[in-house]
C-alpha cells in the first residue's frame, strides 16, 4: 500500500498544473462554485475539500486521484517559518503586529469581551483603483464569540 500524498506535495502539483494550464485561482473557484479565497487556501492545503470538489478540481487541473485524495485530508493549518518570511505574507504579520492591539481594543469596545472567530469566518480580496496606485482591499468577516462561563 502506498502512503497518501502529503498536502504540500499535492499543493505543489496544483500550482504547477494551474500555471501550465493558464488557469487563475478565480477561474478555478468559479468552476467549483466556491469562494476564491477559500478555494485557493484549500488547493494550497489549508482546508479539506469534499470528494466532489477535489475530483472536480483535479479534472480541471489534469491531476490524478492521488492528488484528489490528498485534497480531502484534514490539514495541519499554519505556515512554516520560511513561508512567513515571504515579503507579502510578512506584511500581514507586520500589519497585525502594528494594528492588532488597536483592533482588539475596538472589538472589545464595540462587542464586549470576546474574539472574532477564525472558524466561522470568511475572507475576501478585491482591487480598488486609486490615483496613487491600486489598493488591495482585504475583508475579514468573522463571527463574534463572547467569553462565557
From TrEMBL:
Catalytic activity: cyanate + hydrogencarbonate + 3 H(+) = NH4(+) + 2 CO2
Domain of life according to the entry: Bacteria
Entry EC no(s): 4.2.1.104
Keywords tagged on the record: Lyase
UniProt key word ATP-binding: no
Molecular function GO terms recorded: cyanate hydratase activity
Active site annotation, chain numbering: 91, 94, 117
Homology family: Belongs to the cyanase family.
Purpose of the protein: Catalyzes the reaction of cyanate with bicarbonate to produce ammonia and carbon dioxide.
UniProt protein name: Cyanate hydratase
Organism name: Streptomyces chisholmiae
Gene name, Swiss-Prot/TrEMBL: cynS
Amino acid at each position: 500500500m502506498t502512503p497518501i500524498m502529503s498536502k504540500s506535495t499535492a499543493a505543489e502539483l496544483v500550482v504547477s498544473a494551474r500555471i501550465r494550464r493558464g488557469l487563475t485561482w478565480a477561474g478555478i473557484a468559479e468552476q467549483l462554485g466556491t469562494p476564491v479565497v477559500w478555494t485557493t487556501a484549500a488547493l494550497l492545503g489549508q482546508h479539506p475539500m469534499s470528494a466532489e470538489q477535489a475530483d472536480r478540481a483535479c479534472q480541471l487541473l489534469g491531476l490524478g486521484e492521488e492528488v484528489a485524495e490528498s485534497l480531502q485530508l484534514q490539514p495541519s493549518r499554519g505556515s512554516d517559518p520560511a513561508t512567513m518570511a515571504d515579503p507579502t505574507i510578512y506584511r500581514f504579520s507586520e500589519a497585525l503586529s502594528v494594528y492588532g492591539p488597536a483592533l482588539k481594543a475596538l472589538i472589545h469596545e464595540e462587542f464586549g469581551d470576546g474574539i472574532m472567530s477564525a472558524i466561522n469566518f470568511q475572507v475576501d480580496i478585491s482591487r480598488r483603483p486609486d490615483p496613487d496606485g491600486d489598493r488591495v482591499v482585504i475583508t475579514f468577516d468573522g463571527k463574534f464569540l463572547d467569553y462565557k462561563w
